[in-house]
Design a protein that fits this description.
single chain; 3 helices
Length: about 130
């Protein structure tokens, strides 16, 4: 059994595809599940933990494996987040200074969008059943 000090806290993973596309996942495992091996072939993605940890992607047996390295680049993460926020029209670029907060904010927005889409689909199904 591992000691409590050995347990790594779960942290969000930022994945950048160029300056204007950003994916945020709640954990390394979630990011590994999202991407496919073919996604990594062109080396177009840059991965960071929310604390600036550089994450190294690779493909093993057809699966995406993301590994946190010892390299810390919080400055580079902030720079990429600012560029993304600027490209997306966000006026509060200071959000990039708290990557953990921004990850929670973006993940919450995504959950709300998914919930809204799910409710919209459910409403459509129920409406068809009432009329059909």
């Amino acid at each position: 059994m591992r000691e409590a000090s050995e347990v790594v806290p779960q942290q969000a993973v930022y994945t950048f595809e160029g300056p204007s596309v950003l994916y945020v996942h709640p954990s390394l495992a979630a990011a590994e599940d999202y991407f496919e091996a073919i996604d990594l072939e062109n080396d177009e993605y840059v991965f960071f933990g929310q604390d600036g940890t550089v994450i190294q992607p690779k493909v093993e047996d057809g699966r995406v494996v993301l590994t946190a390295t010892l390299e810390q680049r919080a400055d580079k993460l902030r720079q990429r987040l600012r560029t993304y926020l600027d490209h997306s029209g966000e006026s509060n670029l200071a959000l990039a200074d708290d990557a953990a907060y921004l990850a929670r904010l973006l993940l919450d927005r995504e959950r709300e969008c998914q919930k809204s889409r799910w409710l919209s689909r459910l409403s459509g199904i129920l409406a068809r059943r009432r009329t059909g």
